[in-house]
From TrEMBL, chain A:
The protein's name in its UniProt record: Formate hydrogenlyase subunit 3/Multisubunit Na+/H+ antiporter, MnhD subunit
Domain of life assignment: Bacteria
Lineage of source species: Bacteria, Pseudomonadati, Pseudomonadota, Alphaproteobacteria, Hyphomicrobiales
Key word Cell membrane present: yes
GO cellular component terms attached to this protein's record: plasma membrane
Main location: membrane
Single GO term (MF): lyase activity
Similarity annotation: Belongs to the CPA3 antiporters (TC 2.A.63) subunit D family.
Keyword annotations from UniProtKB, A to Z: Cell membrane, Lyase, Membrane, Transmembrane, Transmembrane helix
Short name of one Pfam family: Proton_antipo_M
Compartment list: Cell membrane; Membrane
Lipid bilayer topology: Multi-pass membrane protein
Every NADH:quinone oxidoreductase/Mrp antiporter transmembrane domain range: 121-400
Native source organism of the sequence: Bosea thiooxidans
Automatic annotation (TrEMBL), chain C:
InterPro entries per the UniProt record, alphabetical: CPA3_Na-H_Antiporter_A, NADH_UbQ_OxRdtase, ND/Mrp_TM
Gene Ontology cellular-component annotations: endomembrane system; membrane
Compartments reported by the entry: Endomembrane system; Membrane
Name this polypeptide is given: Formate hydrogenlyase subunit 3/Multisubunit Na+/H+ antiporter, MnhD subunit
TM segment ranges: 12-33, 45-70, 90-111, 123-141, 147-165, 177-196, 216-241, 253-273, 279-304, 311-332, 352-374, 386-405, 425-448, 469-488
All copies of domain NADH:quinone oxidoreductase/Mrp antiporter transmembrane, residue ranges: 142-434
Superkingdom of the organism of origin: Bacteria
Keywords: Lyase, Membrane, Transmembrane, Transmembrane helix
Entry annotated with the keyword Signal: no
From TrEMBL, chain D:
Compartments where found: Cell membrane
Mode of membrane association: Multi-pass membrane protein
Key words of the record: Cell membrane, Membrane, Transmembrane, Transmembrane helix, Ubiquinone
Family (UniProt): Belongs to the CPA3 antiporters (TC 2.A.63) subunit C family.
Main localisation: membrane
Pfam family, one: Oxidored_q2
Sequence intervals crossing the membrane: 6-27, 39-58, 70-90
Originating organism: Bosea thiooxidans
Protein name per the record: Multicomponent Na+:H+ antiporter subunit C
GO CC annotations on file: plasma membrane
Keyword Membrane carried by entry: yes
Record bears the keyword Membrane: yes
UniProtKB/TrEMBL annotation, chain E:
Ranges that cross the membrane: 6-31, 43-60
Domain of life per record: Bacteria
A Pfam short name: PhaG_MnhG_YufB
Name of the molecule in the record: Cation:proton antiporter
UniProt organism field: Bosea thiooxidans
Keyword Membrane included in the entry's annotation: yes
Gene Ontology MF term list: sodium:proton antiporter activity
The keyword Transmembrane is annotated on this UniProt entry: yes
Keywords from the UniProt entry: Membrane, Transmembrane, Transmembrane helix
Length: 543, 310, 507, 114, 97
């Protein structure tokens, strides 16, 4: 077994081993402090292992690990955020008596999330997907408030739904494959020729869209992110949603292309990105606004992948991963920043607010930030038609949303007494912040095929600046309008769904009544007789 | 002529069965069921199955009858009727039952011809067992495993019945004596048992070669014991009494022991060594008869109601 | 090809032991009195487990079915016992569950009265052993009437377990169970009579060769299958199961739900696959699948509605049994692929085993909860995970298997069934499996959420519960999960004794 | 007609009818005791079917096939045991119900161990 | 000789059967339990006696004949007891309705 393979395996297994270690009460008590180290093997793997490297573990593990370019990009960014957020959590939750439990959920989610970027076979992909999905529940309900439990319940229902869609999709993918656990690559290669192609793709998109939070399956995000503790929100919004992205990257046939489904994905993405902005602007809590921003950004990612699928362009996966890693780092830093802001007052507040503004506007495409890089890198693929226009508008929308966010955090932090955040929280935040600024620069040439110098051209700068200005102006204008904040409740349409609850309850009550009747002796007896006649008749006369 | 008799018997059986079902009074229905059991015995005679006829009359009619009558006496007045059915529902059930009967009748009439039978095989193998009654041979040789398990079934039913006793008196004695014992009953209980025991032993003894056998004999013995207990001549024993336990487990235990010996000294589990088959079978039957008698009597007697005498 | 006549194979005597040894123990307890009940039972549990494992080892080593001709009287006159791969799996599963439940009960009874000898306790040991014997007899039985006796033995052992605590409602549940099961077994017996009348034999192996499409066989199959359905409590014949399984004491519920309902299902499987001619099997399979699907959906919703934990688990049993019935059309097989070569067959068998383990774990966990808190109302158990972490974990892990979440035996089973549904073109069955998984997720999650909640007034155990008690449930739950990690081994095992289909080529 | 109505067939048909009657009683009768009686009628019908089968299978010097007859004997004993258990349960149930209705715990009230 | 015995058998058995018939008629027609009891015990005991008497000449062996007599005696015994018990039940039922 090569060192590279060992490293890949360690990236997956190390967090799991730590989680298993938590079975020991003594280790568990100190588990919070290992969170920072858990993702380090993954980080090392992302940096050190050459791309395109496979590691295959023979029976009985039946595990295939693959590190390709999109996987490496996502893995690196995610591992960094996990590590930093872990350090943040270790500092912010020292007094929490339930912290050991939190650490266990954390390690499990982490193992699942990071493993997803690595794993190359169908069964283990599903396994890790499930692990990441379900363990995140523990992070969401950690605060044990009523809101957290409600968010947790809705999250689990949707996660299970996603699991179901995904399971059937994977089964349809692998059903005709001779190997019980085929590599993802080969089933995806077979997909275009499969008779169940369209159904499979539809289910895959449904399943992963739920995880990504595409409209109308986004409802769990704005509920779960504010409810979770700050470091957990950071990874939920930064990494866990990327499970859907990596899923689409891995399972859609970008080589062969599927124009119709590409178009559908594009449509879904555009709707989502607009919807996220519009609803986000009506929100009044910072974390909720960030959650809607994530929804909107995931819409943009969907558009990218949709274009790739439509035009049969495998490069789209690299670009999408690039965009995603930008979002991972920036969104993670923003969430952590909310925690920092809450602990900051007086002199330092201005500096922190400034950094937050840079981060926030980066999402809109502030020149020289990762946002601008991501937008520029993806521009050529989108072309110059209506799609590019729509994306520009979306960037404007993002900026508007972020301005709204900044206004909120400034207001929230205004009254803070003079204090400075603990270094254990401040340092990780700075690391993520710095990474969000640096990493995209270093990756840019590899991903876009252009030089870094091209980024500094005035026209390039202008290309990203004007939508921002547009957005900012619009937002400043909108902010003047008499607007009822909180008009749309968090989780928007889930409230509509809850209006249907009496209907569901009524149906359930009906079923209860039917059951009572069926369980009456004469009715069951009649059922027995009827079944015997039915079966006997069928056997006698039909066969 | 015989066909006419058979037809009359069948008609009577059906009429009684319907009577049992539609009769309002619980006791009348049970008495009709008793009569039904006796007639059924006749039907078995007509079907050339004297062994079954004896069993049916003894256990199916007699044993079940006394069980039901005793239950009826206890439940009278307090049995709460539950889950009645509408007329339409009853009609639907009636139609369904008729359909099942019709289908069954069709199946019975469509049996393969010539009838498949194991009679020749059973007759051929009879020599190896030394028995004269093929039914006994089936029960204790060819299909002895069924019989063994069925003994356990009876024992389990008994344990189940006993488990319904209240906790404190669990290993005590059941109560079968009525509050006032009528004189004639006592008289009968003094006179009849000697005859009954003779008859029972006789039934068991001939069972190897002629109609009769463990169940029939066991039932007769059980009836005698019950009679004695009901008349109050001898109280029912504590359920934990060693002698009773010995009687109950003795039969199955001997059966098992011989079965295991068969796997050492003969061709396998439940096989009998050449030449010893008949004596072994008779020994098993003897022990089983006692076990069956004890089990049936205690099944009718019901769970313990008195604290054990310590 | 397997010869169509029984002949005692080496190791066949193990089958006799599997059936008879618990019976010997029953007699021994009966004879020696209540005080020695637990001791004798424990010894027998160990020996029985060893026998089951020996049978499995012998099966795998020889690669052929084990047979034993009882008393050297060959069928059709005599009775044969036979264990193929599936039977072997059932025997081992039964032994595992029974032994674990036995250990649990030993600890639990030890909590209340060290000396032992009470009514409930003695009855429990006697019935547990008798039940084991009956189950083994069902799994290795080869003669229809012998199977009838085994089924009755099973019922008679199960009914007293239901009303062990002697409350009016449990006695009522037991009576209802007994009567309905009795009707079921009588219908089965009737079918047996018809088959004898038509073919002159009751031996399954012989019948598989003789059976043709004939009115008598059709009627017999219909009656037997429906009778067994009544005993298996498939929707809409589930009237007796929820009160009976919820009312029984925890160890009893565990064996009832995990094992007892499996016996009739196993027999239906044998009837449909071995006795029914192909066309009849197809028709019966369709009907059974419809009922199974209805069972999954309907009873999962009912499980969601229950306020009491044990009732919820009981309804879940009815729902999970449904999965075993949707196997029939999926495992129909074809000319070149016999039913037992299909993945649906493997999936069904795996579901059977993993449900047994998971359900027993759940009931034991529920038993620990009831022991600790004195009730099992889900709403009033908020935060029980803090007091009983191991039980909560056991419940959660077992729940994973029920929901079909990887890695667990339930997941592999449902995955195989789904694959079969997709390949065979049964989208409605695939949808049912998924919906059932979702609903199962709902009801399992409801309990997990309760366990993890931190209510204003935390629940406090009424009395401390020793760890040993919790470990039994956890062990079973872990076994259910681990089953998912060795999914392909049973695949090979299940082929043994099934027409000697080549085992090569399987992963 | 006469040929097809050999004693075997005749009692077989009678058994079939009894099965229907027994089932009807079990399903429709509100009283539990009568349901138990119904089970016994159902059982009697089934045994008659066995008897009919046995009667048809006479040969080799026997008037009837002994195997089904032996099965019936086993069946009758099992059915009796079932009736005994059912009756015991029914009596116990009614006893407990009476205890409840009287407002006091039945004298035989017991507490479950498990 | 055998012809005479045959005739004796026919006459006695027929008489017994007639008595049975009468008893059954009484059972069906009489208004209350006690009179039904009267009819059935009187007629049936006598009827059975006549039938057994009539069958005795046909018995193949002495043991066969003894068996027949035993049957009759046992039936007498049980019928007498049953009648007593029934009568008591009716009597007590009347006293405490």
């Amino acid at each position: 077994m090569t060192p590279a393979a060992l490293l890949l395996a360690a990236a997956l297994l190390f967090p799991l081993l730590l989680a298993i270690g938590c079975l020991s009460a003594r280790f568990r008590a100190r588990a919070l402090s290992v969170l920072v180290a858990a993702p380090l093997p993954a980080l090392a793997a992302a940096i050190l292992v050459p791309e395109g490297r496979f590691a295959f573990f023979p029976q009985p593990f039946r595990l295939t690990l693959v590190l390709d370019q999109p996987g490496a990009i996502l893995l690196g960014g995610a591992a960094l955020l996990w590590s930093a957020a872990g350090a943040f959590a270790a500092s912010s939750m020292t007094r929490d008596p339930a912290a050991p439990r939190f650490a266990v959920w954390w390690l499990l989610t982490l193992a699942g999330c990071l493993g997803l970027f690595l794993v190359g076979d169908v069964v283990n992909f599903y396994l890790l997907f499930t692990l990441a999905s379900l363990a995140a529940y523990g992070l969401i309900i950690h605060e044990q408030s009523a809101a957290a439990h409600r968010a947790g319940v809705i999250y689990v229902v949707l996660a299970l739904l996603a699991e179901a869609f995904l399971l059937i999709a994977l089964v349809m993918l692998a059903a005709t494959h001779p190997d019980a656990n085929p590599p993802i690559r080969s089933v995806v290669a077979d997909l275009p020729a499969s008779p169940m192609r369209d159904g499979t793709v539809a289910l895959l998109i449904l399943g992963f869209a739920l995880k990504m939070g595409l409209v109308p399956l986004h409802v769990w995000l704005p509920l779960a992110h504010p409810a979770a503790p700050t470091p957990a929100s950071a990874v939920l919004s930064g990494v866990v949603v990327k499970a859907g992205v990596i899923g689409l990257i891995r399972f859609l046939p970008f080589e062969a292309g599927m124009p119709a489904w590409g178009a559908a994905l594009i449509g879904l993405g555009i709707v989502t990105s607009c919807y996220g902005v519009v609803v986000g602007i009506t929100q009044r809590r910072a974390k909720t606004v960030l959650a809607y921003s994530t929804v909107s950004q995931m819409g943009l990612l969907a558009v990218l992948l949709g274009v790739g699928l439509e035009t049969a362009d495998p490069d789209a996966t690299n670009l999408a991963a690039y965009y995603a890693v930008h979002h991972t780092l920036v969104k993670g830093a923003l969430f952590l920043g909310i925690g920092i802001l809450a602990a900051t007052g007086g002199r330092r507040l201005g500096l922190v607010l400034l950094l937050m503004a840079v981060l926030a506007l980066s999402l809109g495409g502030l020149p020289l930030t990762s946002g601008a890089l991501a937008k520029l890198a993806t521009k050529p693929m989108l072309g110059y038609g209506w799609l590019a226009g729509a994306m520009t508008l979306a960037a404007a929308g993002s900026t508007a949303l972020m301005v709204h966010f900044l206004l909120i955090v400034r207001r929230d932090a205004a009254g803070n007494p003079a204090m400075s955040p603990p270094i254990g929280q401040f340092a990780p935040w700075l690391v993520v912040l710095a990474a969000s600024l640096v990493i995209p620069w270093s990756l840019y040439p590899a991903v876009s095929g252009e030089t870094v110098a091209s980024l500094l051209q005035p026209e390039a700068l202008w290309k990203v600046t004007w939508p921002m200005l547009l957005g900012a102006v619009v937002m400043l204008f909108v902010d003047r309008l008499p607007r009822r904040l909180g008009l749309i409740p968090e989780g928007d349409i889930v409230v509509l769904a809850q209006a249907g609850a009496p209907l569901v309850r009524g149906l359930s009550n009906r079923i209860g009544e039917v059951d009572v009747n069926l369980r009456r002796w004469p009715v069951a007896g009649l059922g027995l007789i009827a079944l015997a006649i039915l079966l006997g008749g069928a056997l006698m006369f039909r066969a | 002529m015989t066909l006419l008799l058979d037809l009359a018997l069948v008609a009577w059986l059906l009429a009684l069965a319907v009577h049992v079902v539609v009769q309002r009074g619980e006791r009348s229905a049970i008495i009709a069921f008793l009569a039904f059991g006796l007639l059924l015995g006749l039907a078995w005679v007509r079907l050339a199955a004297p062994d079954v006829a004896l069993t049916e009359i003894a256990i199916g009619g007699g044993g079940t009858g006394i069980l039901l009558l005793r239950a009826e006496a206890v439940l009278r007045g307090r049995g709460k009727e539950e889950e009645p059915m509408t007329r339409a529902g009853k009609l639907a059930v009636a139609v369904g039952c008729a359909a099942i009967s019709a289908g069954l009748g069709l199946a019975v009439l469509s049996f393969a011809s010539p009838a498949p039978t194991l009679a020749p095989a059973a007759a051929e193998a009879l020599g190896a067992t030394g028995l004269g009654n093929p039914v006994t041979a089936v029960l204790l040789a060819y299909r002895a495993l069924d019989t063994l398990l069925e003994k356990i079934v009876v024992l389990l039913a008994l344990i189940g019945v006993w488990s319904l006793a209240p906790d404190g008196v669990w290993d005590g004695a059941p109560e079968v004596k009525p509050a006032i014992v009528p004189g004639p009953l006592t008289y009968l209980a003094r006179i009849l048992p000697p005859f009954g025991i003779v008859i029972g032993v006789y039934m068991f003894w001939v069972g190897a070669d002629a109609p009769g056998g463990t169940f029939q004999a066991g039932t007769v013995l059980a009836a005698m014991w019950l009679l004695v207990m009901m008349a109050g001549l001898k109280p029912p024993p504590d359920t934990s009494r060693p002698l009773l336990v010995l009687a109950l487990t003795g039969g199955p235990a001997l059966f098992l022991a011989i079965a295991f010996l068969g796997s050492i000294f003969a061709e396998g589990f439940l096989a009998y060594p050449e030449g010893l088959a008949k004596p072994l079978i008779v020994a098993i039957e003897a022990a089983l008869t006692l076990s069956v008698a004890a089990a049936l009597a205690m099944l009718v007697a019901g769970p313990a109601r008195k604290a054990p005498a310590r | 090809m397997t010869p169509f006549a029984h002949a005692t194979t080496p190791g066949g005597f193990l089958l006799v032991l599997a059936v008879i040894l618990p019976v010997c123990a029953v007699l021994a307890i009966f004879a020696c009195g209540p005080r020695s009940a637990a001791r004798i039972a424990m010894t027998t549990l160990a020996a029985g487990l060893a026998i089951a494992i020996a049978i499995a080892v012998e099966l795998i080593a020889s690669g052929a079915a084990l047979s034993y001709v009882v008393g050297a009287w060959r069928p059709p006159l005599g009775i044969a016992l036979r264990a193929d791969g599936l039977s072997g799996a059932m025997l081992v599963m039964t032994a595992l569950v029974v032994v674990t439940v036995g250990l649990f009960a030993r600890v639990q009874y030890g909590l209340h009265d060290g000396a032992g000898g009470g009514r409930a306790q003695t009855t429990f040991w006697l019935m547990l052993l008798a039940l084991w014997s009956a189950l083994n007899a069902v799994f290795v039985g080869e003669d229809l009437f012998n199977l009838y006796v085994a089924l009755e033995l099973l019922t008679f052992a199960a009914v007293p377990l239901v009303c062990l605590d002697g409350r009016a409602e449990t006695v009522k549940a037991a009576l209802r169970y007994l009567l309905f099961a009795l009707v079921g077994s009588l219908l089965y017996l009737l079918g047996t009579g018809l088959i004898y009348g038509q073919y002159g034999t009751l031996d399954l192996l012989t019948l598989s060769r003789l059976s043709r499409q004939e009115p008598a066989l059709s009627a017999a199959l219909a009656l037997m299958i429906v009778g067994l359905l009544a005993k298996a409590a498939l929707f809409p014949l589930h009237l007796w199961l929820p009160p009976a399984h919820a009312g029984a004491p925890a160890p009893a519920s565990a064996v009832l739900s995990a094992l007892v309902v499996k016996a009739p299902v196993f027999l239906i499987l044998r009837l449909v696959l071995d006795v029914a001619p192909p066309q009849a099997a197809a028709i019966a399979g369709q009907l059974l699948a419809v009922l199974g699907a209805a069972s999954i959906l309907f009873c999962s919703v009912m499980a969601l509605r229950q306020a009491r934990l044990k009732l919820m688990i009981a309804y879940s049993t009815v729902a999970q049994i449904g999965y075993l019935f949707i196997v029939f059309p999926l495992a129909a097989g074809s000319a070149e692929l016999p039913p037992w070569g299909t993945i649906a067959w493997t999936g069904g068998a795996l579901q059977l085993v993993s449900h047994a383990l998971a359900k027993a774990a759940m009931f034991l966990a529920a038993g620990v909860i009831a022991e600790a808190f004195g009730h099992d109302r889900i709403a009033d158990l908020g935060g029980f995970g803090r007091a009983l972490p191991l039980s909560a974990a056991a419940f959660g892990l077992a729940g994973l298997s029920l929901m079909g979440i990887p890695p667990s035996g339930g997941f592999v089973a449902k995955c195989l069934l789904l694959t079969a549904a997709v390949i065979e073109g049964y989208p409605w069955l695939a949808a049912t499996i998924l919906a059932g998984g979702l609903l199962a997720g709902g009801y399992v999650f409801r309990v997990i959420d309760t366990a993890l909640a931190i209510p204003a007034v935390p629940v406090a155990p009424r009395r401390p519960v020793p760890r040993r008690l919790e470990l039994a449930a956890l062990a079973l739950a872990v076994a259910a999960v681990l089953l998912g990690l060795v999914p392909l081994r049973p695949f090979g095992l299940l082929q043994i004794g099934r027409d000697g289909l080549a085992m090569a080529g399987l992963p | 007609m006469t040929a097809s109505l050999s004693p075997g067939a005749l009692f077989g048909l009678c058994g079939a009818a009894l099965v229907g009657i027994g089932l009807y009683a079990i399903v429709t009768h509100p009283g539990l005791l009568r349901r138990i009686v119904g089970c016994n009628i159902l059982g009697a019908g089934i045994f008659l079917v066995f008897g009919a089968v046995a009667r048809r299978g006479g040969g080799a010097g026997f008037e009837a096939d002994p195997v089904p007859q032996a099965l019936v004997i086993t069946g009758i004993v099992v059915a009796f045991s079932a009736s005994a258990l059912a009756v015991a349960l029914l009596k116990r149930l009614s006893e407990l119900n009476v205890g409840e209705r009287n407002g006091t715990a039945a004298p035989t009230e017991q507490r479950g161990r498990l | 000789m055998s012809a005479v015995l045959g005739i004796v058998t026919i006459v006695l058995v027929t008489a017994g059967a007639v008595l049975f018939l009468a008893g059954t008629l009484g059972l069906l027609r009489f208004p209350d339990t006690l009179s039904r009891l009267h009819a059935i015990s009187k007629a049936d005991n006598l009827g059975l006696g006549l039938i057994v008497l009539g069958l005795l000449p046909q018995a193949a062996s002495v043991t066969g004949g003894l068996k027949l007599i035993c049957v009759w005696l046992l039936a007498q015994l049980s019928a007498a007891t049953a009648s007593q018990l029934l009568g008591r039940a009716v009597y007590r039922g009347r006293r405490e309705p």
